[in-house]
TrEMBL record:
<dbReference type="GO" id="GO:0042597">
    <property type="term" value="C:periplasmic space"/>
</dbReference>
<dbReference type="Pfam" id="PF00116">
    <property type="entry name" value="COX2"/>
</dbReference>
<keyword id="KW-0813">Transport</keyword>
<dbReference type="GO" id="GO:0005506">
    <property type="term" value="F:iron ion binding"/>
</dbReference>
<keyword id="KW-0249">Electron transport</keyword>
<dbReference type="GO" id="GO:0020037">
    <property type="term" value="F:heme binding"/>
</dbReference>
<dbReference type="InterPro" id="IPR036909">
    <property type="entry name" value="Cyt_c-like_dom_sf"/>
</dbReference>
<keyword id="KW-0679">Respiratory chain</keyword>
<dbReference type="InterPro" id="IPR011759">
    <property type="entry name" value="Cyt_c_oxidase_su2_TM_dom"/>
</dbReference>
<dbReference type="InterPro" id="IPR045187">
    <property type="entry name" value="CcO_II"/>
</dbReference>
<dbReference type="InterPro" id="IPR014222">
    <property type="entry name" value="Cyt_c_oxidase_su2"/>
</dbReference>
<dbReference type="GO" id="GO:0016491">
    <property type="term" value="F:oxidoreductase activity"/>
</dbReference>
<keyword id="KW-1278">Translocase</keyword>
<keyword id="KW-0408">Iron</keyword>
<keyword id="KW-0472">Membrane</keyword>
<feature type="domain" description="Cytochrome c">
    <location>
        <begin position="222"/>
        <end position="316"/>
    </location>
</feature>
<feature type="transmembrane region" description="Helical">
    <location>
        <begin position="29"/>
        <end position="52"/>
    </location>
</feature>
Length: 319
């Protein structure tokens, strides 16, 4: 792609990798602060070791008597100062961490399925990719990720982002790319003999190039349309449709809503709740309904589950 600035994969020595997402700057700031802090403590300890070695060496005339009195304020000061520094670092990193896990609502969703040994990605309009992720510059992207077999980890060093991808649950990751180019994508969790081949790239494009790219490729149903087809094929609609004879909850607009359960708990219908509803229907039974829903474990693939979830999300969007 000649219009692209090929920045990401360029060779050469960098102390830190490029900063190509909005997550990178705060992560670098925290990392630098920790290196400076730990470095200064280590240097101070080394300097004192050398100083004491010389000062109290065998035969020196330095005074060796203990202190005559204890200085309470000094002890309190050197206990409280590090405490405050570390609590401060904890608060600082917690703030950044929480921000990393709160995607903006307008983020572009991408379904990611990790398997031995590749990344399978699917955009909202149905366009699929393997080991490559194309994203638009300056626009937040939300990855909904799950694994088909072992634990994998989605790692883009230039974005300073790493998130485990697990079998049995959906983990999310969001970022806003801030630089055009291509960036390394690694699996950062040893996942079997060909783990080291589980690599790919993230391609950040200009928004108009991205729209064009997204529209290319074979025509296929969008993720939500495919999810809707599954919803009918698997018989979900037989129970969940408005006119059904089975007493089952309507699912329109369910994602993000608060659900009251039979056992008195109330939980927010996040992606993992939706996933568990399909695979482990007995786990969270909705209040006022009989637990008659069968489990679809073994009948649906990870992609199918992502598509069903995309369909459920789409029912809540104004079309
Ligand atoms: C035999 C009828 C039946 C079928 C088939 C069925 N469900 Fe259900 N489903 C129910 C009932 C009844 C409940 C409420 C009780 C419960 O939570 O188990 C429910 C609950 C749910 C919930 C939680 C709803 C809420 O309001 O929190 C989701 C999500 C769901 N089903 C999705 C699906 C999907 C997706 C399929 C198809 C893959 C499906 N269901 C197939 C009967 C069914
Ligand atoms: Cu892996």
């Amino acid at each position: 792609m000649s219009t692209e600035v090929d920045a990401g994969l360029s060779a050469g020595f960098h102390l830190l990798d490029q900063t190509a997402s909005t997550a990178a700057t705060p992560v670098d700031a925290l990392f630098t602060a920790l290196v400076i802090l730990c470095g200064s403590v280590a240097l101070a300890v080394c300097a004192l070791i050398v100083f004491f070695c010389v000062r109290y060496r065998h035969g020196s005339s330095a005074a060796r008597a203990g202190p005559k009195r204890t200085l309470t304020w000094l002890e309190v000061a050197w206990t409280l100062t590090p405490l405050l520094i570390f609590v401060g670092i904890c608060a600082w990193s917690a703030r950044d961490y929480l921000r990393l896990y709160r995607p903006p609502p307008e983020a572009l969703p991408v379904a990611v399925v990790a398997k031995q040994w590749m990344w399978k990605l699917q955009h909202r309009n149905g366009r699929r990719e393997i080991n490559e992720l194309h994203v638009p510059l300056g626009q937040p992207v939300l990855l909904r990720m799950s694994a088909q077999d072992a634990i994998h980890s989605f790692y883009v060093p230039a974005f300073r982002l790493k998130q485990d991808v697990l079998p049995g649950r959906i983990t999310a990751l969001w970022f806003t790319p801030t630089q055009l180019g291509e960036f390394h994508l690694f699996c950062a969790e040893y996942c079997g003999s060909e783990h080291s081949h589980m690599i790919g790239r993230v391609v950040v494009m200009r928004p108009d190039d991205f729209s064009r790219w997204l529209a290319e490729g074979p025509a296929q149903p969008s993720l939500a349309q495919y999810g809707f087809a599954l919803f009918r094929q698997l018989g979900c609609s037989g129970c969940h449709a408005a006119g059904s004879t089975v007493h089952a909850p309507l699912l329109d607009g369910l994602p993000g809503r608060r659900v009251h359960l039979q056992d008195g708990r109330a939980i927010v219908a996040d992606d993992n709740y939706l996933r568990d509803s399909i695979l482990l229907p007995r786990k969270d039974v909705v209040a006022g309904f009989e637990p008659v829903m069968p489990s679809f474990a073994g009948q649906v693939s990870e992609e199918d589950i992502q598509a069903l979830i995309a369909y459920l999300h789409a029912t809540g969007e104004t079309r």
